[in-house]
Write a structure and sequence with these properties.
9 helices; about 260 residues; about 85% helix
């Protein structure tokens, strides 16, 4: 009963105007918000591409419906995950599991990138139209179910990343909602940005690895101050643009040579 009351109290923070007023007048809070926006935007770009491929076999008018229903489910799941996660993240073993999962995501990205260097998005496939979900629910609702499952998988990544950045309730609430909005709203903008600067995608997974280390260190009572976290963030993206400029220069030299 106490846990249920605690979850309700967590959700009530959505309407705590004093908390939001304090958040919006604190420069550190804006730094955390900026970090969430950048991270969610970069991660949601590839996620949006995956979902677009998943619904491409549907008629044009049904594609948006399938994505919309998936969006509703993603909100519900994140809402539940945030409420429960506020309690779970206080447990040291949950932090270790979360840090391990985020680290695995980052390492897997670099392994896959090396493995599929010759074929961009080679691992992105459409839904198997003879698959179990399609057979059980039909083409449209089977696709909706598949999109729903994929949204939940993406939600786990985003919610854990938000927990890694900060355990403040408002960070978790905002991060959870931003992730879904980014995937459906401005993912196209970040896709275009990644097309122009491909190294940004790598930067996102470097950032995830940093967040994983930050979460793991907190288990042992080592807390990285926000200013140092922002410095690491700035260095990551500064290095990204340096690498991009170097790669662009090298590509120009190879084309001229």
């Amino acid at each position: 009963m106490a846990i249920l009351q605690g979850i309700i109290d967590t959700y009530a923070q959505f309407f705590n105007w004093e908390m939001w007023a304090e958040v919006l007048t604190n420069p550190v809070s804006w730094g955390l918000i900026g970090t969430l926006v950048i991270l969610e935007g970069l991660l949601s770009a590839d996620n949006a591409l995956v979902l677009a491929v998943m619904v491409k076999h549907l008629p044009l008018e049904k594609r948006k419906k399938a994505l919309f229903y998936g969006l509703l489910g993603a909100y519900v799941f994140r809402f539940i995950a945030i409420g429960i996660g506020v309690f779970l993240i206080k447990l040291w073993w949950v932090k270790i599991l979360g840090a391990g999962y985020l680290a695995w995501l980052s390492i897997k990205y670099f392994i896959d990138k090396k493995k599929h260097a010759e074929a961009e998005h080679e691992d992105v496939e459409g839904i198997n139209q003879s698959g179990l979900l399609i057979r059980l629910f039909g083409t449209f609702w089977g696709t909706v179910a598949a999109v729903e499952l994929m949204d939940i998988a993406f939600s786990v990544d985003s919610v854990l990343a938000a927990f890694g950045i900060s355990e403040e309730i408002w960070v978790l609430l905002l991060g959870g909602m931003l992730g879904v909005l980014m995937m459906r709203g401005v993912a196209g903008v970040f896709l275009n940005l990644i097309d122009r600067i491909p190294e940004l995608e790598t930067a996102a997974y470097v950032l995830i690895l940093i967040i994983a280390v930050k979460m793991l260190l907190s288990v042992f009572g080592v807390h990285i101050d926000h200013i140092y976290f922002f410095m690491l963030l700035a260095l990551t993206f500064a290095g990204t643009f340096v690498v991009h400029a170097r790669n662009k220069k090298r590509a120009a030299q190879e084309s001229n040579g």
